[in-house]
Amino acid sequence: MIKFRQIGQISAAIFGLAIGAAAPLMAEDLKIGLAAEPSAMDPHFHNLTPNNALLSHIFERLVETDPAGKLVPGLAESWKVLDGNIWEFKLRAGVKWHDGAPFTADDVVFTFERAPNVPNSPSSFASSIKGKTLKKIDDLTIQVSTPAPAPLLPTELTNLLIVSKKSGDGAKTEDYNSGKAAVGTGPFKFGSFVPGDKIEMVKNPDYWGTKAAYDKVTFKPIKAGPARVAALLAGDVDIIDDVPTADIERLKKEPKISLSQGVSNRVIYFHMDQFREETPFIKAKDGSAIKNPLRDKRVRLALSKAINRDAIVSRVMEGVALPAGQFLADQFFGVSAKVKPVPFDLEGAKKLLTEAGFPNGFKMTLHGPNGRYTNDVKIAEAVAQMLTRLGIETSIETLPPAVFFTRASAGAAGLPEFSFILVGWSSDTSETSGSLKPLVGTFDKDKGTGTANRGRYSNAQVDQLTADALATVDDVKRAALLSQAVELAMDDVAIIPSHYPINTWGAKKGLKIAARSNEYTLVMGVTKD
Amino acid sequence: MTAFVLRRLTQSIGVVFVMSLIVFFGVHVVGDPVYMLINPQADQKDIEAAIKALGLDRPIWEQYWHFLTGALRGDLGRSFIFGESALKVIVQRMPATIELALTAVTMAVVFGIPLGLYAGLKPEGVFSKIIMAGSIVGFSLPTFWVGLMLIMVFAVILGWLPSTGRGETATYLGITSSLFTLNGLSHILLPALNLALLKISLVIRLTRAGTREAIHQDYIKFARAKGLSNRRVVGVHLLKNILIPVVTVLGLEFGNLVAFSVVTETIFSWPGMGKLLIQAIQSLDRPVIVAYLILIVLMFVVINLVVDVLYSILDPRVRLGEGSA
Fold first, then answer.
1. Residue A188: what pLDDT?
2. Which string of b and e fits B46-69 if b means at least 16 CB within 10 Å?
3. Which residue, of A110, A265, A450, B102, is most buried by count of CB atoms within 10 Å of its CB?
4. How many CB atoms lie within 10 A of CB A125?
């Protein structure tokens, strides 16, 4: 008898296991494996992509972006510029918070007060608010004024998630993490947050827009790339982001899996020390000191010509990148149609180097991060070999990102430490102004220009064009100014662009996720075949 | 014995202090966490504001003093990344790691000791040779690779077990653990096996070596001469004598499993402390690193103590508190 009972228990257990395994196949649940782990459920705690992306499910913005980065109405139905310095936003009527309270201008006012002042925030939203004064006109109208014309104001608001005043008043980050204050207007409601393990969300049945297709969504941080792919293949998750480049070819042949790809708003490029007379990591071949060759445009162009971008794209990036000639890929705002990737031309490069007075080349160290960008170490190795063929003996040193970025930005006495570095940059506004100002704008702490200008390139004309563009509301004129600035900077070889990475998402057959240029993984972009 | 325990604990305070000093200054040298935490788009003023908010603008000795005074009150600082108490962040993840380590150690004992005994008692048998060859494989294969292979075989190809994460939890006798649910057990099997593989090999070799040595001792011969059953000779007289090194090693290995199962936790996305530690190191979350290592030092002190106490139970000749501890 006992034995029979045991068998019964065991078979019940097996049956239970089978149900557990079958559960992910039910249509109304969705599981997503994320490469990067969000650190909090407070939308104003940490201004970084993993958090901003995940919280877009619960909270919403005044202005949203479509997958290509174009502005679309969010909690604001429409917006217009009144007089150069004032923007007026008409808020959407009939929107309700998850707790049933109506959404009004007071919530926006509250958000603007809260966002820059979250205690212990390692990266605050102060920059999204800076210089903006908010005025409530009526319950569904607000005006935002700035000291100078701000054409990008709606774009800048695409970074700021609006929180409820009622739930958020006095709430700390802990209250959002526990779910108490995590009350939004978005298509999903907060379910649970177990740091390091999972984040669960449930459908908001009263959502004002297109209602979510899933009753429950679970996000699981799976940091290791191969493990993420395995989880997708095993059916433990339905969608993964950041598919490792090495697995893409294989997954393409896998009948159970469908991939979506889209070029990101990031460029991988080389920054060159252009401000020191002598640069610490360039020496003559015999080891003696020489003047900094990177200040000579001909040398910079020679380096650019010696880099075989097609080889980097096809061999190192396994085809999931586009050769780059400027700051952003062709479809983005403010790029120049005239600027093409510099073609590979070793002979031409050698000639330029000779003209510049370095017929025998020199010795150089290329510094880069290991593990910050896709295949960053391999790219550094490949480029070092290409430059060595040009006659510039290039050795590489890759550092953990934490060390690399500190030293590359402010290593030696607060100045950038390295001579030639591999870095990446994504323009958060998806237009070239978001690259020109920080990357090649003259370094100026007070103006906030050149913040990531680790080569300290400086060109008054580029600065002026960028500043003019940032004060021009008319899109056509702004695009013209920006593309002019891009042409100037690229003609000067201010930086050497390498490639634009293509982001890849994987989904089980029957699902498709929209590839977004800002690398957000959003359930709202999931469609069923 | 009380005096012995107290003396041990006092010594450990010194160790913890020195360790905190080394880690605190060591991590400071490595790099500046601000550049890891802040949004790349931030300008100089934002960066300076963030440095100030995290208290990194003050000189390092002042930061250390601040940390030390806080630590004496039981506050080990606030995680840069999570904005919550570092201790809370770590303790939150502790149950997951402990249940994983316990499962792995249990596997090591359950598989390791019988197999080791067999190999020791019948050293020339074919099965013994297979066991010993297998233990070499268990030793030499890298955890990272074995983990991925386990996922490939059992999750992707066969589809028997889940590949990632911790399963559902249940609360039983006040303890919340995923060991109490079937779903939880199915999740823990692969990562625990991955961790246990090396420990099983270790226990096999230790048990075998001990058995080979003890089997020729006089007391075994005497026990046999007395006509005791083989079962009693092996199960009581032999086993009790060879368990001492096994217990020592397993104790320390348990500590290692809890503290540093970084690789396995990363591959299986196990929401434990090891994954937290590697994440904290990558982003230079200094308070978490320091708090973590302090906890680990304390844990090892306790484990050593427990091992010593277990000795005295297994071997009556061992007297605690005599000589140098």
1. 95
2. bbebbbebbbbeeeeeebbeebee
3. A265
4. 26
Q: Confirm or reject contact between B246 and chain A (CB < 8 A).
A: no
Predicted local distance difference test score (pLDDT) of residue A382: 94
Q: What is the CA radius of gyration of chain B?
A: 24
CB contact under 8 A, A221 and B269: yes
Helix count and strand count (H, E) for chain A: 17, 23
Report yes or no: B157 and B274 within 8 Å, Cβ to Cβ: no
Q: How many residues are given for chain B?
A: 325
Closest chain B CA to residue A12 = B182
Average pLDDT estimate for B33-42: 77
Dihedral sign computed on CA atoms, order A385, A387, A393, A397? negative
Q: pLDDT by residue (tens digit) across A457-480?
A: 999 998 999 999 888 888 899 999
Reading the block at residue A55, the tokens are 């919280």
DSSP state of A155: H
Of the listed ranges A216-220, A250-254, A290-294, B51-55, the least confidently predicted one is: B51-55
DSSP B152-206: IIIIIIS--S--SS----EEETTEEEGGGSHHHHHHHHHHHHHHHHHHHHHHHHH
Residue in B30, B82, B183 nearest the CB of A195? B82
* pLDDT for the residue B321: 56
Answer yes or no: do B45 and A448 touch at CB < 8 A: yes
CB A233 within 8 A of CB A254: yes
How is residue A310 written in tokens?
């097609």
Give residue A471's pLDDT. Answer: 86
| CB-CB under 8 Å, A405 with B35 | yes
- Judged by a CB distance cut-off of 8 A, whether residue B183 touches chain A is yes
A45/B contact by beta carbon, under 8 A: yes
Contacts with B182 from chain A: Cβ below 8 Å = 13, 16-17, 20
A226 chain-B contacts, CB cut-off 8 A: 148, 267
Cβ burial of B36 (10 Å; 0-12, 13-18, 19+) is buried
At B108, the amino acid letter reads A
Strand-pairing partners, residue A365, are A395
Q: Looking at chain A from residue 204 to 243, which residues have their Cβ under 8 Å from any Cβ of chain B?
A: 220-224, 226-227, 230-231, 233-237
Other CB atoms within 10 Å distance of the CB of residue B125 = 12
Chain mean pLDDT for chain A: 87
pLDDT above 70 as % of chain B? 97
Give the minimum alpha-carbon distance from B286 to chain A in angstroms, rounded to a whole number: 12
Q: How far is CA A299 from CA A178, A305, A423, A524, B241, in A?
A: 56, 10, 20, 48, 75
Partnered with residue A264 across adjacent β-strands are: none
Q: Which of B34, B42, B283 sits opposite A127 (nearest CB)?
A: B42
Strand partners for A102: A96
Other beta carbons within 10 angstroms of residue A451's beta carbon come to 23
Strand stretches in A289-359, DSSP E: 321-323
Half-sphere exposure of A396 toward its Cβ, with a 13 Å CA cutoff? 20
**Chain A contacts of B31, Cβ < 8 Å?**
400, 402-403, 405-407
Interface pTM, i.e. ipTM: 0.80
From the CB of residue A138, how many other CB atoms can be counted at a distance below 10 Å? 9
Calpha distance B115→B101 (Å, rounded): 21
Say how many CB pairs under 8 Å bridge A and B. 180
Judge whether B50 is closer than 8 Å to chain A, CB to CB. yes
Residues 123-182 in B contacting A (C-alpha not used; CB under 8 Å): 148, 151-152, 155-156, 159, 162-166, 182
Tally Cβ neighbours within 10 Å of residue A362.
17
- Cα of B21 to nearest chain A Cα, Å: 21
